[in-house]
Write a structure and sequence with these properties.
It is built from 10 helices and 2 strands; from the N terminus they run H-E-E-H-H-H-H-H-H-H-H-H. It is mostly helical. It has a two-stranded antiparallel ribbon with strand order 1-2.
Length: 178
């Protein structure tokens, strides 16, 4: 709801008044960084952002201060490690979110986003990228993956899929989707 309502907040973003795939509901583009920057924390709370409202306002402010879209374009041209590091300097951006931005927003297809689903896949002995050491730690402690685990899993996925194809893990349907 909060995403749809955020998009609908700006009438100029209307793409289609009715659309067959949305049960006849209007379709809007996602707000620009400048548009998000005009929204108050209170308004974001009203449309359902909850505890994320304050972070989104601060994130938009910090991103704008760094140069906004132009800064992101510079990150696109730079190295993956540089982009990850710079993004993690923004409010609310940790390793997973930085990797998602790099993969889906900056086109860095070599990224392996190590989330809970990816960790679960690493612990399936029937799959070629199974990592027994990570599985043992995973069974004992469900905490966030350590940096060295992330690098090892990323290398393992690159070995199996190739550096530019590991991103297919995030675009393929999961077994529960079938």
């Amino acid at each position: 709801m909060c995403i749809r309502d955020s998009c609908a907040e700006f009438g100029a973003n209307l793409v289609s008044a009715t659309h067959s795939t949305t049960s006849g509901k209007a379709v809007f583009r996602f707000p620009s960084l400048n548009q998000i920057g005009t929204m108050s924390e209170q308004r974001l709370l009203e449309i359902g952002w909850g505890y994320r409202a304050a972070r989104l306002v601060r994130f938009a402010t910090e991103l704008t201060a760094r140069g906004g879209v132009e800064w992101l374009e510079q990150l696109r041209k730079g190295s993956l490690d540089e982009a990850r590091s710079e993004l993690q300097g923004l409010c609310g951006v940790g390793p997973k979110v930085a990797d998602c931005i790099c993969l889906f927003g900056l086109g860095k297809h070599e990224v392996v986003v190590l989330d809970t689903h990816c960790r679960q896949m690493c612990c399936r002995p029937d799959l070629p990228w199974c990592d027994p050491e990570l599985c043992q730690r995973e069974a004992k402690n469900k905490r966030a993956v350590r940096a060295k685990d992330h690098l090892r899993v990323r290398s393992r996925f690159w070995d199996v899929f190739g550096r530019e194809r590991a991103c297919l893990l995030y675009t393929s349907p999961s077994p529960r989707d079938s």
